Amino acid sequence: MIEEKKLKKYSEIALIVVREASKFLIANFGPTKNATHKTEHHFGIEDDIKLNDFYEKKLKRLTPEISLYTEEGEKNLDSDLVWVVDPIDGTSNYRVGNPFYGTQICLLYRNDPLISIISAPSLKQTFRAIKGKGSFLNNNKIKVTPLVNLKESLVSIGKGTKYSDNLWYGGILKNMLEQVRTFRHFGSAGLELAYTASGKIDIYINKGAHFYDYTPGVLIVREAGGVVTDFNGNEWNINEDSLIASNRTLNEESVKIFKR
């Protein structure tokens, strides 16, 4: 574990960098942007690359001792300390002027999340957490939902970009239809996890996204008193492409559906 002084320093650096990234997004948000094809149903935009480059240059200058794993650039998980960066989470939303998008960063120590920040610039929301110190939205402490009845729950379900993820998505909606109150799908895994941490979503489920989509929000949910597991109920780790996030009771009830 890294010492408290360094933890505070890295947290402050992450916040400074995310604030600068948020300013870039606000300045460029609005007009519809051209998309380029990446893989299957996965598309990107030029701002993804620009903001990714900004993160890499800034973090290398401020914390040269920490490795980088970014969506659009460097991919190094071999060091004890790694910055995980998703420059625009919810690119499809951002591209067409939909304000539900974010920019996010997480510091891993031996693959365990230590510091997370998720910013939703157009919504003026900043979620942050340090391991062992709670989760916050704009400096106000947050907690996951206290709800325990699955049939009363609002569930958000996300998915990856492969055709098989779309098939899974249709299947899980059908399987859960009579088990919960209602569904949502916002299109930004990081923000949906942050909304779960703050009780705005009761349960968040995803299959097929990448760990850089999940990792910042996972810590924020955990520090808000929540539980994040895979579909078998095992604690989530960065090798998993599926997760369920909620309070412990609703998480356990959700896992039962996947085990049927």
Automatic annotation (TrEMBL):
<feature type="binding site">
    <location>
        <position position="88"/>
    </location>
    <ligand>
        <name>Mg(2+)</name>
    </ligand>
</feature>
<keyword id="KW-0479">Metal-binding</keyword>
<dbReference type="GO" id="GO:0006020">
    <property type="term" value="P:inositol metabolic process"/>
</dbReference>
<dbReference type="GO" id="GO:0008934">
    <property type="term" value="F:inositol monophosphate 1-phosphatase activity"/>
</dbReference>
<dbReference type="InterPro" id="IPR000760">
    <property type="entry name" value="Inositol_monophosphatase-like"/>
</dbReference>
<feature type="binding site">
    <location>
        <position position="86"/>
    </location>
    <ligand>
        <name>Mg(2+)</name>
    </ligand>
</feature>
<feature type="binding site">
    <location>
        <position position="89"/>
    </location>
    <ligand>
        <name>Mg(2+)</name>
    </ligand>
</feature>
<protein>
    <recommendedName>
        <fullName>Inositol-1-monophosphatase</fullName>
    </recommendedName>
</protein>
<keyword id="KW-0460">Magnesium</keyword>
<dbReference type="InterPro" id="IPR020583">
    <property type="entry name" value="Inositol_monoP_metal-BS"/>
</dbReference>
<dbReference type="Pfam" id="PF00459">
    <property type="entry name" value="Inositol_P"/>
</dbReference>
<keyword id="KW-0378">Hydrolase</keyword>
<feature type="binding site">
    <location>
        <position position="71"/>
    </location>
    <ligand>
        <name>Mg(2+)</name>
    </ligand>
</feature>
<feature type="binding site">
    <location>
        <position position="213"/>
    </location>
    <ligand>
        <name>Mg(2+)</name>
    </ligand>
</feature>
<dbReference type="GO" id="GO:0046872">
    <property type="term" value="F:metal ion binding"/>
</dbReference>
<dbReference type="GO" id="GO:0007165">
    <property type="term" value="P:signal transduction"/>
</dbReference>
